[in-house]
Specification:
heterodimer; A: about 170 residues; alpha+beta; 4-stranded antiparallel beta sheet; two-stranded antiparallel ribbon; about 25% strand; disordered C terminus; B: about 290 residues; 8-stranded antiparallel beta sheet; two-stranded antiparallel sheet; about 45% helix; elongated
């Protein structure tokens, strides 16, 4: 009877020796997948924000979104969402301000800006053991890149716009 | 005991692998949705490029007023002891009525242009789409979404971008009785053939639905709920361009895509996941006198 229970204990321990690393790898994989998906969502939200307003301020809006994500993520496993490079606003067409001959003032005719805002974000992920398999040092960095059509409409401005230089003025 | 532990291990690994596959499938579906949303938005933006739909609406409205005023003048001319100007009044009325034909021809031209541009954009996307798997594991391969259908139409309860003017009080009263415009906003309803009263009822003045500007602000293009989309017709069907059958200028586009996925060992099972999105174009730009 005692010999039988001893054998079971040894088999159970031997099983655990295999099972625990397998479980750890699975948990690690889950953390990496979770981090990549979180980065994808953050990148999408940042691109949406970048595309939703004045292209000159796209960087600020995208950074604000990432700051919010960073403030919500606690712990070290998945952290440090950041812009990998400045937001790329590729503008195909935009309304062109002109100088009104009658009043001598700059008039912005207003209208839709067409183009795309592209955001590239990175995230740092610190798994337990997976990085050893790939021989990489912690943290693992993953990046994501997303492009969203700009959907900003420049408001019509019949008076001198403070942000617009006067065309043709001395 | 060793068998029991092995079974447990196998079960845990199996559940985890199935979970990872399912999670990745959902993740890829979510990415496809983002992609189709962006596509619907870019197609929608084409519709009112350069405020062309807003301008056609303005042209229709002003042409209508011109015909109405010309008719009133032509009627009043003999009665107001200005008989010698009858020929001029007739000519003005004739010119105004001819103008309606020009505007109607341009409206048809714009419908064809919009349809062609959206068809070209959809065809270009399907042609340039990568045929390789965008995500690949041994037991799961997903592909970029391919466009199956593109429909043009409007969004429920969106009115036209032009307002009824009170300067022609009789015309405004006729429009009010005919329920042509919303008394609260004075915006003409759409799509609407705002026929004139009397002898000019044979002319059609088609007003298209388009979000109007509010306090000099033009509504932005955006994605919207597919449930409120009202189709006028399809421009792409089963991935192929279809003949244009649209009668009104659209303001929204509904894109249906299929995301193909190969699931199982060696991609033995092929599934297509439907992804849809609706985009509405930018609204009318404000007129200087608004």
């Amino acid at each position: 009877m005692r010999r039988g229970s001893g054998q079971s204990l040894i088999e159970f321990t031997a099983g655990l020796v295999v099972l625990v690393p397998v479980l750890l790898v699975l948990v690690d994989l889950a953390i990496v997948i979770y981090g990549v998906q979180l980065n994808d969502t953050a990148c999408h939200n940042a691109a949406q924000a970048a595309a939703a307003g004045e292209p000159a301020e796209a960087q600020y809006r995208a950074q604000t979104v990432l700051n919010q994500v960073n403030s919500r993520t606690t712990g070290e496993l998945v952290s440090h969402f950041a812009l990998d490079r400045p937001v790329e606003s590729e503008i195909e067409a935009a309304p062109i301000p002109y100088r009104d001959q009658m009043t001598g003032k700059t008039v912005n005719p207003g209208g839709v800006i067409t183009g795309t805002a592209t955001v590239t974000t990175t995230v740092e992920i610190r798994p337990f053991i997976v990085h050893n398999v790939y021989g990489k040092r912690l943290p693992l960095k993953f990046s994501c890149r997303q492009s969203i059509p700009i959907r900003y409409v420049v408001p019509m401005c019949e008076f001198p716009c403070p942000s617009e230089p006067l065309i043709g003025s001395n | 005991m060793i068998v029991l532990v092995s079974l447990c291990m196998g079960l845990i690994v199996l559940v985890a692998v199935i979970g990872i596959i399912f999670n990745n499938l959902l993740f890829q579906n979510s990415r496809s949705q983002d992609k189709v949303d962006a596509m619907a938005l870019s197609f929608a933006r084409l519709i009112n490029a350069g405020n062309r739909v807003g301008q056609i609406n303005e042209l229709e409205d002003r042409c209508r007023e011109l015909v109405y005023v010309s008719r009133q003048t032509e009627i009043a001319c003999p009665a107001a002891d200005c008989g010698y100007m009858t020929a001029l009044c007739d000519q003005l009325l004739s010119d105004a009525r001819s103008g309606q034909k020009l505007v109607e021809a341009e409206r048809q031209n714009q419908i064809n242009l919009i349809c062609n541009e959206v068809q070209d954009a959809a065809t270009r996307y399907n042609r340039d789409r990568s045929a390789d798997s965008s995500f690949s594991l041994n037991w799961l391969q997903t592909y970029e979404p391919r466009i199956t259908d593109v429909a043009l139409g409007t969004i429920k309860d969106v009115q036209s971008s032009v307002r009824s003017q009170t300067v022609f009080s009789e015309l405004a009263y006729h429009d009010y009785l005919a329920d042509y415009f919303d008394p609260e906003t004075a915006l003409y309803k759409a799509p609407l053939n705002a026929r004139l009263p009397g002898s000019d009822a044979d002319l059609s003045f088609e007003l298209s639905a388009l979000p109007a500007s509010v306090k000099m602000i033009t509504p932005q293009p955006r994605n919207t709920n597919s449930d409120v989309f009202v189709p006028y017709g399809k421009v792409v069907e089963s991935g192929e361009q279809s003949p244009n059958s649209i009668q009104h200028i659209p303001n929204a586009v509904h894109v249906s895509c299929a995301m193909d996925a190969l699931v199982g060992p060696h991609g033995s099972n092929k599934v297509s996941i439907s992804v849809v999105s609706t985009g509405i174009t930018s609204g009318a730009s404000p007129e200087p006198e608004d």
